[in-house]
Structure formats: structure tokens, C-alpha cells
Amino acid sequence: MNIKKTIARDISWLSFNARVLQEAEDKSVPLKERIKFLGIFSNNLDEFFRVRVAGLKKMIELGSKAKMHLEVDPQHILDEIQEIVIEQQNDFELIWNDILKDLKKSHIHLVNETKLTTVQQKFVLDYFNEEVRSYIVPLMIESLQQFPVLNDKSIYLACKLSKIDRSIPQRFALLSVPTRHLSRFLILPSKTNEQYIILLEDVIRFCLPNIFSFFGYDKFSSHIIKVTRDAEFDLDNDVSSTLIQKIQKGLKNRKKGKPVRFIYDKAIEPALLTYLVKRLGLTHNENLIPGGRIHNYKDFINFPEHIFDAKSTRKKPFTHPHLKNSNSVTSVVMEKDVMLHFPYHSYDSVIDLLREAAIDPEVVSIKITCYRLAPRSKIINALTNAVRNGKQVTAMLELRARFDEEANLKWKEELEEAGVKVLIGVPNLKVHAKLCLIKKRVNNVTTHYGFVSTGNLNEKTAKVYGDHCLLTSDRKIMADVNRVFTYLESPATRIGILKSCKTLLVSPVNMRKQLLQFINKEIKNAKAKKPAGITLKVNSLSDKILIEKLAEAAKLGVEIKLIIRGINCMFTEDKKFKKPVQAISIIDEFLEHARVMIFENNGQPNVFISSADWMVRNIDHRIEVACPIIEKDIKQELIEIIKIQLKDNIKARILDNDLSNQYVNPRNTKKIRSQIEISNYLLNKKTASH
Questions:
Q1: What is the C-alpha separation between 302 and 185, in angstroms, rounded?
Q2: Is 320 annotated as a binding residue?
Q3: What's the rounded mean pLDDT across residues 152-165?
Q4: Would you say 184 is a known binding-site residue?
Q5: CATH hierarchy code of domain 321-503
Q6: How many helices (H) and strands (E) does the chain have?
Q7: Does residue 254 register a pLDDT over 70?
Q8: 593 is in an annotated binding site
């Protein structure tokens, strides 16, 4: 009998997305945030189908020839995914209908083309003629020999055109809804305090007689459809192509990827549905997902916020107390380590560090890794200014950062034009470490400072992502950061230099080995009746070797505590565990993105921040870094923050074997919402420091 040792990764991911849906359902969450969570759920699911479902389909096609980590039974997992997704879609529709009722109570009405007043009808028609019409190109699909390639980020109106007296045959047409060019939401005029919003597709629906008047039809039905395509592209082994050419080719091919999901309004005309499924080359059981009238809820992340009366209760980020009264971030960091906790602390301190380096006459060079940058990146601005001031600047741009490939190609061009030396990756290894190394020369003495972070160098996402960033001039840490950059500048010949890192744990050369050593040390301490524990905070836990080692530790008496936002493949309940494993997931206003590892070490904890999740891809196929926290006060501060999260009984869900997503029960204890408690904890430290 084959007993499963781990939970299937994709099923665990769907359980994570169900937690996102719980936030949309939770009436204690502000209404505008509930709508945003529906958008996040929808966007997550799109990406899941584009990457994971597409991968499972490839496994089935290729069988044993597949050059990927094979799931035991991909077809069984696909069947399970289909079942769960349809169930979640039904829950989604119920939650959306509930939100619509709550919107009405707040005097906000989402109206369709049949509910417009005379004044609103004129407004919609004028808006269509002035703003929308130029983007509308009807496709009479029955007359097209080659069916058009439907963009997987777009929604389409599938229309049936007919004549009431049946004097001309009915026809089918497709219209792309131009959400890339125009807002999905149009606020309508109102003489009362009631707010009315119509969706862009309903503006188009209202104007269908106008669009198709040329054809002589007078009866129209239209329903939203959406195709999700395989978004993965293989970087072929053509040696005559550069990595950039391969990525550009992959981006073009992505637009024509195989359909992996077809979503449609369940009220669509059966004949039209059958026709579309046939022309798209799908089968009736192949990820066809029926839904309601609206699709592409990811656009609802940008639902108009200004129409809500309630002001945000979110506290604004504040400057770290050590940096608050200093004229220079650099001078503080040269004296002592500073740990920034985003989004509670302001990201401006990171930008300021780079700006100061850009104009400091004693700074010789700046080296930095970039994975996902903000659209109007202040990081890039600081780097280009540094070049203008005569600094040598090196930027490692990971061109294979999924769905950011195009943006990073543009950044490469801009940086190179400014004179920045751009590194574009390592063959077969994504560079995911978040590092900065600044070299300063004073009186012929060279010193290094910079930072190691758990999050992307992105000031936009730093406002909503929970991450940690260590600003440091520690010689041992910076020596290893320097070694990583030396490797990145010459990866073909310098792999040995990564192995010589003494302080940082570095993937793929020594992180797995050292993590196993740390766990083994805790096992040894537990056997010797010494304090033994492992606290792990990551986005995902799916590496089978590390999971089995954690389970072994739990069976031998090591206290295991897990905070995992997303995928958790570990069975956390086992009668053989000497102490129950505490495993929770926190989904709240901020996205928990940090990775933290705490090994009890007989009362002298080893604490690390890291860019790496505990997944095979991070440990074995990426350049990742885990950095020890050496300074006692910062170490204690980080331990306290993790303790607060482990006590969360408002937004924490229990990660059990059944993936039930039950909330942690506050019982009679004080209610603790960790994100608010952490904010208060750090604000109190700020006050105390004054």
C-alpha cells in the first residue's frame, strides 16, 4: 500500500487560494478590500492555470520524456483541480452576490445595460462614440477560415446576431473588450447621493445595435468568454540564439500557447458555446468552467476606491527610529545594522541609501540584483544617477522573472543606455537573491556596505508586501555578498567562489546541506533533552527532503512551528509527533512575503532571513541567499515579530491534513490580529527610542 508522504502541491495551492476567497467573504473586512480580494483570487487562479495546469498537461503529453519534476498521477490531479475549481467558482458567485447587496446598502449600484435611465443612456452612448468605438473591431467568426488567437488576458463578448422576423440567417461574432486601453468601470451621472457604475462590456452591449446596424440585425444576445493559455516557454538549446532572443521568441509564442481553460457565462446560447469549443479545439471535459455574467475579476483589484465613504484605517509607513534623526542613512549603516520591516517601515530608506551612494565622492561602485521592479522605478533612477556621477554600476536583471520578462528587457535597454553594466542571468539558474553591495574607498581603505532582503527591490509592492531588509556593513556578510556578485559576473568559471561563502547560506551550492545540518542539530539537542525547536516562515513548503526531515525532527521531540502563506505539502498532524506541529497561514491586508528561519540551538537561537522558499526550485535551481541575523537586538526584534504572528487568532488559519482552512479559535484569550499588533509593536519601539 502506497502511503502519501506529502500533500499534492497543486491541491495545496488551491487551498491557499480558498483562504484568499475567505477574505472576500469576511464581512469584517472593509467592502472595497473584499472586492480587491475577489480580484486577487481571480488573478491567482489565472496564473495557476497558465503555469501549473499547463505543466500538468505537458506531463501527460510527454510522459516519461518530460524534463520536469513529475507528479505521481498528473491526470488524477487535473481531475481533482477541475472539481475544486468549479466548487470554488460557485462559492465565488455567492460571495459576489453578497457583496453586490452590501454595495447597495452603501448606495453603490453596479448596473447593466438594461437598467439605465434616459440620462445615463445618452451618457453611455456618448462615451462609447468618443472613447470606445475606435477600439471595437467585430470579428464575424463563421466567415473566418483561421479562427483568431484569443488573448489570454482579455475578455470577449461572444454575440449572436439575429432578426426578429427571421428574414436573414443568424450569425456569430466576437468583440474584444478593450480593458487594456480603458477602465473596466464607468461611473454614471446621478442627481442623488446614489453612485452608479457600469462595466465596459455592458457599455458595449448597450451599443450593439449601433455597432451592427450595417448588417441589418435587430436582436442581439451576448455573453462573456475568456481563454487561459499555457504561459510557460522553454528556452531552447539553439546555441546561435542569445538568451534575449530566446526570451523574445518565448514571449511571442506565449501569446499562441495552448488553451488550458475556457471560462464562459453559463447562460450562453448552447449552439454558440458548442461552436466556440469546437473552433478553439477544446473537448467538452477539458477545463471548461461555467460561471456568471462577469469574468476577469482581476480587474476588480482596481475597482474605483474614491466612491467609498470609509477612509483607510491603514497606518502610513514610518521611518525607522535609528534613521529618523540622521542626515545620512549611510553613516548609520556604517556604524550599526538596521533591520527594516516592510510595509510598516518606509521603503524610502532603501532609496535614500542608493541616492546617497550615487552622489558620495568616496563611493566607487554599486552592485545590485533586480528581480521585479516598480513600473517607474526609483531604484533605476538612483542607479542611472550614480553612473552620471562616475560610479561603476552593475545590475543583475533576471530576464526570466515570470510575467516580468518584457518589463525587464526594457529596463535592460534603459540601464545599458545610461552606462550601467547589466548582467542577464546564469544558464539554468534563476537569480532570486535580493542583494546590494556598495564599495567605498576612504584614505585608500576599502569598505563595503549594502543590504540583504527577503523582498523584491520594488517600492510599489513594499507598501503592501510584508518583508525584511537588513541594511548592514558587517564585514563577514558583505564579504559573502561580494563573492556572490563575483560569481554572477563570471558564472562559467567562478562556481567555486560560492562554495567559499562562510556566513551566508547560498543556493544551489550549500543551502540544502546546511539546512539539514541545522535540523539535525535540533534533533541531537532534543535527544539530549536540551531546548530544541524550529520556527519556519515561508511562502511555500514543498521540498520533500526537507519536509521528511522536519517530520523526523517532530517525531524525535523537536518543537516545530510553521507560518506558511501559500503552498504547504507537509502533513502537519501525525500521532507519532512527540509535540504537535503548530502550522498556520496568515492572509490579511498585507501579503506575508518574508522568509524567516529560527533554530533554537539550545537557547542561543540561530536566526536567518532569506529570499528562498523551501521548494526544490529555490534550493536547487536558483541563486538564493539566507542571511544570519548577528546583532542581538535585531535578532530579538525579529523573534518577537514571529511570536506575534504565531499568536494570531483573527487572520490565522490552521494548516491541517484535510486542508479545511479553519480559523484559529481565539477562545477566551485576547484577540490578536498580528499585522496590527506588529505595527503597534514597531511604533512603540519608535516612541521608546525618542
A1: 9
A2: no
A3: 90
A4: no
A5: 3.30.870.10
A6: 21, 25
A7: no
A8: yes
Q: Span 175-184, mean pLDDT? A: 95
Q: Is the pLDDT of residue 510 over 80?
A: yes
For 628, list phi and psi in degrees, rounded to 5. -70, 145
Q: Does the annotation place 402 within a ligand binding site?
A: yes
Beta strands in 294-418 (DSSP E): 338-342, 363-370, 392-397
What positions carry a catalytic annotation? 432
Instruction: Give 369-419 as a DSSP string.
Output: EESS--TT-HHHHHHHHHHHTT-EEEEEE-TTSTT-HHHHHHHHHHHHHHT
What are the residue ranges of CATH 3.30.870.10 in the chain?
321-503, 507-689
Helices (H), 490-601: 495-499, 511-527, 544-555
* Cα–Cα distance measured from residue 609 to residue 6, given in angstroms and rounded to the nearest whole number: 25
Give me the pLDDT at residue 238, please. 45
Q: What is the DSSP letter of 129?
A: I
What is the pTM assigned to this prediction?
0.92
| The listed CATH number (3.40.640.10, 3.40.50.620, 3.30.870.10, 3.40.50.720) that belongs to domain 507-689 | 3.30.870.10
448 is in an annotated binding site: no
- Whole-number average pLDDT of the chain: 91
Give the H/E segment covering residue 34: helix 31-48
Mind listing the pLDDT tens digit for each residue in 524-557?
Answer: 999 999 999 999 999 999 999 999 999 999 999 9
CB atoms within 10 A of CB 115: 12
Q: Which CATH class is domain 9-302?
A: alpha beta
